[in-house]
Amino acid sequence: MSNEDTVGFIFTCSLKEIELGEDIIFDKHRSEFSFEQKYIGLIIPQSENYRGITEPLAYFKYTDCIKVFNQDERAYSLNFSGVKVPFHDLFLTHSYKSYIVKIGNGNYFDQLYPSASKAFIAARHQENLLNDYLYKFFNP
């Protein structure tokens, strides 16, 4: 559907990225970090957006998505051995390719930096800082 403010159309085949929002939680009783999934967002990729930036299209609560995943038999991914793995299990075990696109409620890195290479470097830097923090926590 389109209105006067819409410049282009979005086809479902162009929605190939999702955003998984998580909180990192430290359990002091077990002395371990865990990830709590908060939401899943449909993302318009930079290559498909007329503005040339990554933009969210819609957000859904993770608990609502799990209900849909459990009811829909198409909600699975094939692993390397051809076994069907439900999306919920993939998200819980972090068995997917991902990278950090933003920290907190701020802007996406490609919105903060003028060039794609600077945005990529900033995202990798934040990912390295997080990995260093987690490593130093357990290896003082």
Radius of gyration, rounded? 18 Å
Residue fraction in strands: 25-35%
Mean pLDDT equals 81
Helix/strand-derived category reads alpha+beta
Pfam family, one: GldN
Offer a concise description of the structure.
The protein is of the alpha+beta class and 140 residues long. Helices cover 31% and strands 26% of the residues.
Please outline the helices and strands.
Elements: E1 17-27, E2 32-44, E3 55-61, H1 62-71, E4 76-78, E5 84-86, H2 87-93, H3 109-112, H4 116-138
Antiparallel strand pairs: 1-2, 2-3, 4-5
InterPro entries: Gliding_motility_assoc_GldN (IPR019847)
What does this structure look like?
By secondary structure, the chain is of the alpha+beta class. The protein has a domain at 1-74. It has four helices and five strands, in the order E-E-E-H-E-E-H-H-H. The chain has helices at 62-71, 87-93, 109-112, 116-138, and strands at 17-27, 32-44, 55-61, 76-78, 84-86. The protein has a three-stranded antiparallel β-sheet with strand order 1-2-3. A two-stranded antiparallel ribbon has the order 4-5. A hairpin with a 5-residue loop joins strand 4 (76-78) and strand 5 (84-86). The protein starts with 16 loop residues before the first strand and ends with a helix.
